[in-house]
Design brief:
The complex is a heterodimer of chains A (about 600) and B (about 325).
Chain A lengths: L9 H6 L4 H31 L6 H7 L3 E2 L2 E2 L1 H37 L7 H21 L29 H30 L12 H33 L9 E2 L2 E2 L7 H35 L6 H15 L14 H13 L1 H15 L8 H23 L2 H7 L3 H31 L5 H27 L19 H31 L74
Antiparallel strand pairs in A: 1-2, 3-4
Chain B lengths: L1 H22 L9 H28 L13 H32 L15 H30 L7 E8 L2 E6 L33 E3 L2 E4 L4 E7 L4 E5 L4 E5 L5 E5 L5 H6 L1 H16 L9 E5 L11 E7 L1 H10 L3 H5 L1
Parallel strand pairs in B: 1-5, 4-10
Antiparallel strand pairs in B: 1-2, 2-3, 5-8, 6-7, 6-9, 9-10
Helix pairs in contact in B: 2-3, 3-4
Classes of the chains: A mainly alpha (about 600), B alpha+beta (about 325).
């Protein structure tokens, strides 16, 4: 690093920083800001779902011309669910999660002074920032933001006549997403190159912590699938603005026949889900990687089945690119394709099951240090199992027919990717906060945050499965138009109460986070007694991460509680402590694990 | 203005939390044995809460579920669903127990040592192979049923076209020749709301209706079109759903198993209807009677949430009588 001793100004240090540690914090704060917007939106539409005809002054306050007497309009309801989904999936759980932790941990855990290209890394963040700004601006356009669902299927998303949000709001949505994709591609390429080229001496691929494996594979999936979404978005721009007919054909709307001929919305669905499904794993894998690391450290035990974990990450990544059709069983595509996609989809259950079993086995006979990060990781395993299992129902094309696009799906994916990934993100924040800010977060508030959040998550999403099984479609502004859904009203009220409490509980986290930045207890160098390299850097951040030489790695990351006699659980620790940092050389005659 | 007020309240709450935490001891940062003991206990309490909620929902919400399949093809869907549900239910109960029980049982203590246990090929083989075998069964049954449902060829089937638009449904019966006349948006004009090509001989005896009547025990072959955006024709009681895509015709078929009357007499349906009517009576709304419905299940704009069409299943004779009463397009449009 040539700029090792560069003089830094305020601008180069805090704004146009090229230091991966600062960029990771920028990603996190921006992601949190977007997250707050998306959570507030969900609170508003939950109010509408629980009490459809009731006037709320808070709705009056926030929705302005999109409401009458405190009751939101159907169009803005659709806009809220659309933007909630978009922000959560892309801005919070992709950029906020991957952007934060890949940036923070890849150089620190592989022993590199920074990312392969600090400049591109900075560009990646500022593109993300720009796309966030555009997305936020789109909320304020006259006719309302994009409202065709986060999947933006044409023709609804292509024709302003079809829904008001498909005017300027949709244009901004597409621009924002295009910039977002550029940001995440630049980021992903950087992560891949860094992991492949900048590992320190002794850090073989087989010694990488599982976090790095997860970030690395995630980046590869991103590079493979995000460009397809970009092309889908571009073709949609052409259809919207230049009169092409990629997705449109035979349309009669507001009293006139449109000129479009020969296109098909099904094409868009294919292109969208070719990203859309891998995206689930782009969101989830980093969370699982963080969990592997946090569970192992806090259980004071090696992660069970390291090789199997790596293999299953790879298997999931590979399979994730050939299952997109399970979102389209009833889209009108050839039924034979449905059979193929059912087969590949259900196969994903195998590596996922291996991961879940391996986590549970890691807990078994551990010495669990129940820090907030550890609890969130355990919570992740719990919600991942609950949400994953219902995937067996949805992935089976014959069963999907009847629950497709019902609340059963909403419950499923919120648990398996929404809640799980958020839990992974929280686990990561509590665990690596000392590395980010040199201070610790408060544990008492962490505990409150965790228990309220997990209770409310289950309180919201477990009953929601049953509304879906009762046949209630998602994206309904209210279910009062159907007497057959009258008996679901009470459940909706319960769900909304859990959602409001759960949403409010996040204030505890925000308070803890921001207060701890300034007032938290000063961190020690290795507070969790962890093996990985990031805890060998000084608490105070320096450019280039390590003063002097880079550390040398001699073992894998999971030598926790290694014994003198491998077969005797009562024997002493081999290295005198229940952890052995990766920089510790092997003793004479010590078997590498 | 009011929004600013709410934001102000939010900020004030944040500041007060800040002030409260100033008084609190902010130095507790790493879990000690006392925390481990406490949190381990909470894990058990949470497990009790989770189990109570799961079981309560499974039992109490039975009554709001859809009744048994009203189509013959859907019977296997129900069976496959039950098998899958039992299976994942069992796995769910075991896994959640292990997760939270282990959290409690192995809570940290400075006198304890964790077991160094990094690998076991035997165990990993077991939990790779068992899910694989189970999945083979599920996939096998699932694919067999999928092919079953998707096999819509049947010469005797009643052919019906369902046409979706923002925000409602039209339907067209194929008439005596059981063949639908061609349709395209270019022909939409006046009362020809489905865009039927009236120069097509097959179109003359077609019959456009606002409500669906289906014969019990006879296969119904649906052809779906859409006028403007994507819609999805969702008939949950028949375990049937298919998207309506502008620019193409999609298809689905099923055989109704119970007439509407028979369905109304079923105990599951009666119980659900009773519950609904209790709620409606309390709100002063009129009495509800069970009917099959066609709903829209693909986001399609403002009134997506109310787009519906009534379906009535009747005996064959009654169906024939009803159909013969409907005027043909030729007479209506001329």
């Amino acid at each position: 690093m040539s700029d090792h001793h560069h003089k830094e100004t305020f601008v180069t240090k805090y704004i146009f920083s090229q230091d991966h540690k600062m960029i990771s914090k920028q990603f996190l704060i921006t992601g949190m800001f977007m997250g707050i917007i998306a959570v507030l939106m969900s609170m508003l539409f939950r109010l509408q779902l629980a009490w459809p005809d009731t006037s709320f002054s808070i709705i009056e306050a926030f929705l302005g011309r999109h409401q009458t007497d405190g009751v939101m309009s159907p169009d803005i309801y659709l806009a809220l669910v659309t933007i909630h989904g978009t922000i959560m999936v892309f801005f919070v759980l992709t950029a906020g999660l991957s952007g934060t932790f890949s940036n923070l941990l890849i150089p620190l855990q592989i022993g590199a002074r920074d990312m392969a290209s600090g400049f591109l890394n900075m560009i990646s963040y500022w593109l993300f920032f720009l796309s966030s700004v555009i997305m936020v601006i789109s909320l304020f356009v006259e006719a309302g933001p994009a409202s065709a669902g986060w999947t933006v299927y044409p023709p609804l998303s292509a024709l302003p006549q079809a829904i008001p949000g498909s005017g300027a709001g949709m244009t901004l949505w597409l621009v924002s997403m295009a910039i977002f994709i550029a940001s995440s591609l630049i980021g992903a390429l950087n992560y891949i190159v860094t992991v492949l080229n900048l590992r320190t001496k002794g850090m073989k691929m087989t010694r990488l912590p599982l976090t790095i494996w997860a970030f690395f594979i995630t980046a590869i999936i991103g590079v493979v699938s995000f460009p397809v979404l970009l092309s889908a978005a571009l073709l949609l721009v052409f259809d919207r603005s230049f009169g092409t007919s990629f997705y449109l054909s035979d349309i009669f709307i507001s009293g006139e026949v449109l000129h479009y001929q020969g296109g098909s919305p099904v094409l868009f669905e294919h292109l969208f889900w070719f990203l859309g499904h891998p995206e689930v794993y782009i969101v989830l894998l980093p969370a699982l990687g963080i969990t592997s690391e946090v569970i192992s450290t806090n259980a004071r035990k090696p992660i069970f089945g390291y090789r199997a974990m790596v293999m299953s990450i790879m298997a999931i990544a590979f399979l994730s690119t050939i299952v997109w059709g399970h979102h389209m069983f009833i889209s009108g595509m050839n039924p034979f394709l449905g059979s193929v996609f059912t087969f590949t989809t259900l196969l994903i259950a195998i590596p996922s099951a291996v991961k879940a079993f391996n986590y549970v086995t890691t807990l078994w006979k551990g010495n669990l240090q129940l820090n907030p990060a550890m609890l969130f990781s355990i919570g992740l395993v719990s919600t991942f199992v609950t949400g994953g299992l219902t995937g067996l129902v949805l992935g089976d094309s014959a069963l999907d027919i009847n629950i497709h696009d019902t609340y059963f799906v909403v419950a499923h994916f919120h648990l398996v990717m929404g809640v799980s990934a958020i839990f992974g993100m929280y686990a990561g924040i509590y665990h690596w906060f000392p590395k980010m800010y040199g201070r610790m977060m408060n544990k008492k508030m962490g505990y409150w945050h965790f228990w309220i959040t997990i209770i409310c998550s289950y309180g919201v999403f477990w009953p929601m499965h049953f509304i879906g099984l009762a046949g209630l479609p998602r994206r309904y502004y209210s279910n009062t138009a159907f007497p057959m859904f009258n008996d679901l009203a009470d459940i909706n009220v319960v769900i909304t109460i859990f959602a409001l409490v759960g949403g409010a509980a996040q204030i505890i986290f925000l308070a803890n986070y921001f207060i701890s930045i300034y007032r938290g207890e000063k961190a020690t160098q290795n507070p969790w007694k962890s093996n990985t390299l990031e805890w060998t850097t000084p608490v105070e951040h320096i450019h280039g991460n390590w003063p002097g030489k880079l550390p040398e790695v001699h073992r894998w990351a999971y030598d926790y509680s290694k014994r003198v006699d491998a077969n005797d659980d009562d024997s002493d620790y081999l290295h005198g402590a229940d952890f052995v940092p990766q920089t510790t050389p092997l003793l004479e005659g010590e078997e590498p694990s | 203005m009011l929004a600013l007020f709410y934001i102000f309240i939010g900020v004030a709450m944040g500041v007060s939390v800040w002030q409260i935490t100033r008084i609190l001891d902010f130095r507790g940062v790493i879990a000690n044995d006392e925390d481990n003991a406490k949190q381990g206990k909470y894990a058990i309490y949470f497990m009790v809460f989770l189990y109570a909620m799961m079981i309560y929902c499974l039992i109490a919400m039975n009554v709001i579920m859809l009744p048994e399949s009203a189509s013959i093809e859907g019977e296997h869907d129900d069976r496959l669903f039950n098998i899958t549900f039992w299976l994942i239910g069992i796995v769910q109960f075991i896994m959640q127990f292990l997760i939270f029980y282990f959290t409690f049982k192995y809570r940290g203590n400075k006198n304890n040592k964790a077991k160094f246990y990094a690998d076991s090929h035997k165990l990993e083989m077991i939990w790779t192979i068992i899910p694989a075998v189970v999945l083979v069964i599920l996939i096998g049954y699932g694919l067999w049923q999928w092919n079953n449902v998707m096999d819509i060829e049947d010469e005797d089937a009643v052919v019906i076209e369902v046409y979706a638009y923002q925000w409602g449904w039209h339907a067209r019966y194929a008439g005596d020749d059981n063949t639908l006349g061609a349709g395209n948006v270019n022909y939409i004009k006046g009362i020809n709301t489905m865009g039927v090509d009236m120069s097509d001989v097959n179109a003359q005896d077609d019959k456009q209706v606002t409500e669906l009547y289906l014969p019990k025990g006879k296969k119904v072959h649906f052809k779906f079109r859409s006028q403007d955006v994507l819609h999805s024709a969702y008939m949950p009681h028949f375990r049937a759903q298919m998207n309506c895509v502008p620019g193409m015709v999609t298809e689905f078929a099923f055989t109704p198993k119970y007439t509407t009357e028979e369905m109304r007499m079923q105990s599951e349906v009666r119980e659900k209807t009773k519950g609904i009517n209790k709620i409606r009576a309390a709100k002063g709304e009129d009495f509800y009677e069970f009917d099959y419905l066609l709903l829209c299940n693909k986001i399609c704009g403002t009134s997506h949430y109310s787009m519906q069409m009534k379906i009535t299943v009747v005996e064959q004779e009654e169906y024939e009588a009803w159909v013969s009463e409907q005027p043909t397009l030729a007479t209506v449009i001329q």
